[in-house]
Predict the 3D structure of the following.
Amino acid sequence: MTDGIAKDRLEKLQAMRGAGVDPFPPRVPRGIPLHELLADFDQRVGQAVTVCGRLSQIRDFGKLRFSHLQDRTGTLQIGFERDRLPAFWPDRKRVEGNDLVAITGIVGHTQKGERTLWATEVVLASKALRAAPEKWHGLQDVEQRYRMRYVDLFANPDVRAAFAKRSQIVREVRAYFDSLGYLEVETPILQPIFGGAAARPFKTHHNALDMPLFLRIAPELYLKRLIVGGMERVYEIGRVFRNEGISTRHNPEFTMLESYEAWADYKDIMARVEGLFAHLCATVLGGQTVVTFRGKSFDLKPPFQKARYLDLFAQQNPGCDWFDHQSVLRRARELGLKTDGLPPEKLANDVFEATVEDTLQGPIFVHDYPVAISPLAKRMPEDARVTERFELFLSGMELGNAFSELNDPIDQEQRFQAQLLHKDDETPGEVDVDYVTALEYGMPPAGGLGIGIDRLTMLLTGSDSIRDVVLFPLLRRVDPTAPTAEPAPPQER
RNA sequence: GGGGGCGUAGCUCAGCCGGUAGAGCAGCGGCCUUUUAAGCCGUAGGUCGCAGGUUCGAGCCCUGCCGCCCUCACCA
């Protein structure tokens, strides 16, 4: 505790203890939610009710004080009158802004007509030793907001609203898949072989088994084992971990929705995605379909635009053949891309990303991706070089990825083997033999889908940064050994 | 990793050309029974992110470091 405010508050706390008042009592009168009181406020005028919450700054008139009480459902003015609070009055200054309290009072109004609870009993529920941020601006400093999200949340109501919306989005995603007969499942986060995406994993270790493990980069391969097992429709909403850079669209741990549906193909999954967005518009957006994101507005009303991957590539890179390494190399150099050491398909996709992705306003389905960059997707019957796969883009941002799942164990094993040839740190060091074995037992044709819940939430809440929809985004820890201005904190008790 | 920006009181921010570190809010002491950004009087609060350098003198100029933001790169 290094500042004078905390010292003042600590003194108040000790004064209360000295007077036999517990500043952190185990329980206080349990109040009703403010929205419930506000809903039929006029009928309750004259009645006594109890409410609980956090006090805002107190406006003091000597024998009369006002403050507002905030709980998760709303805000209500509290009036403290000397004549109604004879017992509390002498100690009134020990309860101050930011403290948590239970207030019993009489429902009424002020002379100007504002709804007010006239307190008859004030019980301190928890003493705040630190002051709330400034009342007009709240907590603005971005770093402090992320590092001290607990303050951000109670000081900035719109932040609370955004996370409430995220919760609602997840709930409605579940409702959508549940309504289609999908089962929600949970699969391992600790995996001996990482797979299902291309990304560097976090490594860890299990002591008792003395076994290296990876935090999953995707649940994909386990979910498809469940399709082999006959569960037929499954989805998982869970955390995945990718050991990559951090940006406004990337947090090292993020929440992924993956779903798999037997007997469906990627066109069916497109319809599912459109259905999901229609459902989210109807529920989360209250019937709206237009959202504003990064300064532009987007209509999420299905059907979405569609374009072939290779057509888009050709449009932006005339004369360049995706499958011809020499022409891709020329084009990549022309664009100033890094070319050395990259496998041909990686470079070709880099050219796609450099030239096409930013042009995709969307929402748009980009479909029919080359097999070389789609190791888990089924080939198109008409052209074995491309797969039945699509990604959903909006404002240049990838929101989802889906395909007809490769269920040919021989093809799958060959593709895994091919990956090992130019293995990098985004490729597992071995073939997931058990997954191939699962396919050998027979997997029905199936369509699978992955959607980044964080990015979806960014879109639906109009947040520019993923950190505004992740409660505790990863930040570098402040080095505790670095020299600081603060001496070692004094021992308090 | 490259480029740009930021870091000053608990919070939000000023601080000019290098010349004694400021305001509002919060706090503390007063006055006030209808405020809601209450008001008025008084008061306290600072290692200017950290470390060095230049200078008679550094919040300001220079170098390095730490952290955050933006951006590019990276990232199916």
